[in-house]
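Whiteboard transcription, Tuesday session. T.W. wrote the C-alpha cells on the left side:
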C-alpha cells in the first residue's frame, strides 16, 4: 500500500513537472541566448589571424554538403588585407578561401584552394585588357560529379568584359586541384561577361548547364558536357536568361541556379545593384534548367524591367547598425530536403566588414522561396500556438531602394559606401494583442497552425506567413520569427521581441 502511494505520488509529481515544463516551453519566447559569434571582427582582421576568420571575410560564397560536412568556397576578399603577402608572419596566402562546418553555425577556415592564379587565366585577361586586372580569383563554385569534385572560378579585369571562367578538379573537396582549362572566355566587344558561374543538371535527362554573367549584357546559360565539365560546343557562349534596362546604373550579376523537386521547378537567383550598398537578391523560375525564367508576375527575366520576388535587401532591426550588401547568394540543400541561403553581408555604417549570413529558406504555398529574417543558429523547433504570438514584434517590409546614385560599371563610386536613409529597410514595432488587433499599425492578425499567420493591413491582407522558432541576433534571444511575401512579390519579415 505504502509503495503504491509513493508510486502514485511519483506519477503525479512527474506529470506536474512535465506540464510545467511544457507550459514554460510553449511560452519561453523570447529567451536569452548568446550569439555564436560577433559581427565586428576588426580586432582579428590582420592576416596573421586568418585561422580565426570562420565567418569573416566571406564574399561570393558557394556551399555544398559532402557527407556530414559543409564545404564553402569564396572570393579572396580581405578587409584591410588586399592582396599583400606576409611572408615574415609565415602566412602562405593563396586564392579562393575554403571553410568547413558541421552545423552551418561554426566555421573552420581551412586556407586557400590555389597557391596562385592559373597561368592560362591570367595570360588571357592581361593580353586582352592592356595588362590590367587578373589580380584575384572571383566567385568560385563547387560541384560534385561522380567521384570527382569540380571547382569553377573566374579571373577578370574590373570594368571590362575581359574574363575567364576556368575549371579545376580534385579527388577531395580540400584539393589539391588539377587545372582543366577554360570553360568560357569573353573579351571586349562580347555581349556578355564570363564571371559568376553556377551549375545545374536537368533532373530528367542529365544535361548540365552553367549559368553565368554580370553587369555586361546580363545573365547567360550555356550547356556543358557532364563528363568533362566544359562546354558541349567549344567556344559556345550560350544564350541570354536575364537582363536589366539601364546598364549605367542597373547592375545584375551572381546567378545561382537550383532545382526543387517538390515543385519540379528550376530557380534562378540573381543579385541586383551595387555590392557594397543596396545589393539584393531576386529570383525567377522555370520548368527547364536553361529557361526561359519567369518572375512573380509571369514576366520573362529577359524583359528589361525590375523583376520580383525580392528576397533580401539592406535592412536594420533595432539595437543594431544594420546590414548592407546582402547579395551574391549560394542556395543549397542539406540532404534532408531543407534549403539554406548563404550570402555576404556588410556591417553598417561603413559597409566594409564582410560577414557570412546563412538563412533558412522556406517555401510559400505558391512555390516561391522566402528566407528567414535572421541568421541560422540551429534553434530547436517547438510547437507554436496562437497564444505564443501575442506580444511585441518588429516587422520589416522588404522594398526596392529609393536611390539615384552615380555608378561606375554598376558599382558605387569610391567614398560613397554608406547607405542613405532611403536605401535601407528599417523595422517597425507593433503589438499583437490577444483580441487579434495590431497596435501600432491599425491592422489585425490571425494565426492558424495549418495556414500560418495572416496580417490584415490598410492596403492589403498578407496570407500564409510562415512562423517558426529562430535566433534574434540583435537582442541575443531565442524567439519566434516569420517570413513570407506580399502581393507585390516583396518579402515580409517579423520577429517577436517581447
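and on the right, the sequence the group agreed on:
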Amino acid at each position: 500500500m505504502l509503495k503504491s502511494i509513493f508510486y502514485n505520488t511519483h506519477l503525479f509529481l512527474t506529470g506536474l513537472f512535465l506540464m510545467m515544463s511544457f507550459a514554460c516551453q510553449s511560452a519561453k519566447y523570447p529567451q536569452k541566448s548568446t550569439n555564436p559569434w560577433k559581427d565586428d571582427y576588426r580586432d582579428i582582421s590582420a592576416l596573421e589571424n586568418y585561422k580565426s576568420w570562420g565567418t569573416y571575410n566571406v564574399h561570393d560564397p558557394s556551399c555544398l554538403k559532402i557527407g556530414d560536412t559543409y564545404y564553402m568556397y569564396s572570393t579572396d576578399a580581405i578587409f584591410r588585407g588586399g592582396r599583400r603577402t606576409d611572408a615574415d608572419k609565415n602566412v602562405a596566402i593563396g586564392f579562393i578561401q575554403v571553410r568547413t562546418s558541421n552545423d552551418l553555425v561554426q566555421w573552420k577556415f581551412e586556407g586557400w584552394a590555389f597557391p596562385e592564379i592559373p597561368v592560362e587565366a591570367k595570360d588571357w585577361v592581361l593580353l586582352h585588357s592592356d595588362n590590367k586586372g587578373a589580380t584575384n580569383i572571383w566567385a568560385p563554385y563547387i560541384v560534385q560529379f561522380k567521384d570527382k569534385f569540380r571547382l569553377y572560378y573566374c579571373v577578370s579585369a574590373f570594368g571590362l568584359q575581359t574574363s575567364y571562367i576556368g575549371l579545376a578538379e580534385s579527388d577531395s573537396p580540400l584539393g589539391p586541384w588539377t587545372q582543366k582549362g577554360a570553360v568560357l572566355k569573353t573579351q571586349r566587344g562580347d555581349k556578355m561577361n564570363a564571371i559568376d558561374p553556377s551549375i545545374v543538371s536537368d533532373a530528367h535527362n542529365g544535361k548540365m548547364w552553367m549559368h553565368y554573367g554580370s553587369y555586361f549584357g546580363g545573365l547567360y546559360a550555356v550547356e556543358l558536357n557532364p563528363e568533362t565539365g566544359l562546354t558541349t560546343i567549344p567556344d559556345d557562349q550560350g544564350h541570354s536568361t536575364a537582363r536589366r534596362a539601364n546598364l549605367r546604373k542597373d547592375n545584375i550579376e551572381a546567378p545561382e541556379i537550383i532545382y526543387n523537386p517538390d515543385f519540379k521547378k528550376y530557380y534562378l537567383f540573381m543579385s541586383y545593384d551595387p555590392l557594397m550598398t543596396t545589393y539584393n537578391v531576386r529570383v525567377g523560375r522555370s520548368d527547364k534548367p536553361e529557361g526561359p525564367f519567369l518572375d512573380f508576375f509571369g514576366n520573362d527575366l529577359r524583359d528589361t524591367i525590375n523583376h520580383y520576388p525580392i528576397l533580401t535587401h539592406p535592412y536594420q532591426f533595432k539595437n543594431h547598425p544594420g546590414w548592407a550588401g546582402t547579395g551574391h547568394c549560394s542556395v543549397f540543400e542539406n540532404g534532408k530536403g531543407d534549403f539554406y541561403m548563404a550570402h555576404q553581408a556588410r556591417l553598417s555604417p561603413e559597409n566594409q566588414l564582410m560577414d557570412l549570413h546563412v538563412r533558412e529558406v522556406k517555401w510559400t504555398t505558391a512555390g516561391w522561396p522566402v528566407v528567414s529574417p535572421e541568421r541560422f543558429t540551429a534553434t530547436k523547433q517547438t510547437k507554436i500556438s496562437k497564444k505564443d504570438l501575442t506580444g511585441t514584434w518588429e516587422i520589416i517590409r522588404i522594398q526596392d531602394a529609393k536611390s539615384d546614385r552615380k555608378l561606375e560599371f554598376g558599382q558605387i563610386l569610391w567614398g560613397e559606401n554608406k547607405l542613405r536613409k532611403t536605401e535601407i529597410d528599417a523595422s517597425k514595432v507593433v503589438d499583437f494583442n490577444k483580441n487579434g488587433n495590431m497596435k501600432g499599425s491599425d491592422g489585425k492578425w490571425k494565426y492558424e497552425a495549418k495556414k500560418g499567420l495572416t496580417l490584415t493591413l490598410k492596403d492589403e491582407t498578407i496570407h500564409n506567413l510562415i512562423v517558426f522558432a529562430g535566433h534574434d541576433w540583435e537582442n541575443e534571444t531565442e524567439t519566434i520569427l516569420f517570413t513570407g511575401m506580399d502581393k507585390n512579390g516583396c518579402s515580409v519579415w517579423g520577429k517577436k521581441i517581447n
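Someone added at the bottom: Helices lie at 2-26, 119-127, 386-389.
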